Amino acid sequence: ITPPSRGHKPVKGSTGHSPAPFLSGATCNVQKSSTRATSTILGQLEEGKDIIFLQELNKAPPLPSPWSSGTSRALVHANLGPPRRHGSAVILSPRLAPFATPLDHLDNEGLLAAVKVKLPNAPEFLAVSVYAPCTEDKKVICRDFLARKIGDLHLKYPNLIMGGDFNAVLQHPLDTEDMVSPNTWEWLHNQVIPPSRKFVDTYRLLHGTKREFTRFSTPSMPSASRIDLVLVSKTFNSNFHVTSTNIQSYDKSADHHPVDFSFNTPFIPDLPPQAPPAKQIRRLTDPEKTKFLAKIVDITMWCTRANPEFPNFLE
């Protein structure tokens, strides 16, 4: 697990001598970008990330080179839908991929993509990418479907994290600078995450009443709103403590800005290295060399468990 940034506080259950393990991710609407443009966006998002949510995909996203080489590969689960107009995807880093199971056939429109993750000795959680269309011909029927489906998923998977373009704000007028109709925000607040479902808007949890926006319209129709969200169930936040949610601006010309997030947990154990040392050792024929290397592996693994920042010399 990537070590936390400076100033990170250990969570309950950690010793305080080494940083608590944590996972990081991002959500981004790529707006039907070309394969090359999507690859560029992914290259910016991938750095240090374990979970990436994408929306409005035309085709399955390409993998950045660090995630597509070596013995371990990332997991890409995309739901494009027949029109291939607004597909969604969840991408997990090679560290999480071995513990993940994609959920298929959630919908036929590409609105949802979900992956179940079960780490050893940790609660199972569901990572969901969400796209809520804003066009009039899709808005009503798709939003009703999303409200019901997200409710069903929440009942089955109490530890739920969602990243997506909801095309709606949670608090009006705090999350917008344009004249958003009441229906736009009431749909999300009342149907998708009503108080009974106990969802947490991670940005508001950590930033209070600060005003920032994720989507900016064209100069001819200026407006700004925070419609790209990272939402977690209350149960998820109790088990996997959200530590940061920040709006990024990698590309100033983009309509949508990505949202980064991270969460930690005392439950996550050591994850397997990307290149299993056992396979390298088996290639050797000298028993003494094999025994010697096995000791190096044991010592290195012990040091890494004691301090996640200890460099892995096996590379």
UniProtKB/TrEMBL annotation:
Q: Where are the compositionally biased (Basic residues) regions?
A: 1-11
> What species does this protein belong to?
Eutreptiella gymnastica
Region annotation Disordered: where it falls in the sequence? 1-26
Q: Which Gene3D superfamilies match?
A: Endonuclease/exonuclease/phosphatase (3.60.10.10)
InterPro entries linked to this entry: Endo/exonu/phosph_ase_sf (IPR036691), Endo/exonuclease/phosphatase (IPR005135)
Q: Which GO terms describe its molecular function?
A: catalytic activity
Where the record annotates domain Endonuclease/exonuclease/phosphatase, the positions are: 26-242
Coiled coil stretches, renumbered: none
What is this protein's record name?
Endonuclease/exonuclease/phosphatase domain-containing protein
Record SUPFAM superfamilies: DNase I-like (SSF56219)
Pfam families for this protein:
Exo_endo_phos
